Input
Amino acid sequence: MLIAIVDDISAESDEIKEILHSIAVKQCMTSDISYFESGELFLNDFKNNAFDIIFMDIYMNGITGMETAKEIRRTDKHCLLIFLTTSMEHMLEAFSCNDFEYIQKPVNEERVIMVITNALHILPTETQYIKFTSNRQTVRLLYSDFVATVSADHYLNITDCNNKIYKIRQTLSEFTKSLEKDSRFLQINKGIVVNMNHIFSIEDNTCTMKNGQTFPVKVRDSLKIKKIWCQYGFHHIHNDQKRRRQ
Output
């Protein structure tokens, strides 16, 4: 797990850190824990999908934990936010930040263990991320946020759901190796792979994505590619209806 603790009281952060290390040992998993003593310092270093879990103190010098959380949610919708506070009066406001949990101080070890255990049940596994380096930064892009990648001159241009484009030096075959077993990804032309969940239409040998991007579809395989996309869509509609009936 990649975890951040944002708290201006280092003694309380150290206490949480010890509990988390203990949980990691018992669960036989690795954890990378980063500490930030203010919301400003955290936001200066923050990158989308950089952390699985963020422990956020609400009352801090400078910008509050709630203000920091709102900035996080502008770009990162997936990390689990766990608020730390001495008061429960901000609980309703925390809901607006799509928080995962709310832990009251002083921190209770059993409460942290319960929260982390619950988090482990819903956190994506490592195979649900595409990990690459772009502009000297390590990026962990969720499969669900990946829209498309296009190869050009020994580079790949990767688009995410926020229309951000990452440029990396890698072959398409190397990049898509980890995606091969996931049915949502489809190669529609030489050097072009898209996430079918983000396709808006396939018409006239053109694939139009929901974000407005368009890509040429291989003419010889155009009907086959459109059929694969349609079947994929029907399959997911069927599964959604099945889950609703359960």
User: Anything to note?
Assistant: Residues 222-245 form the longest helix (24 residues).
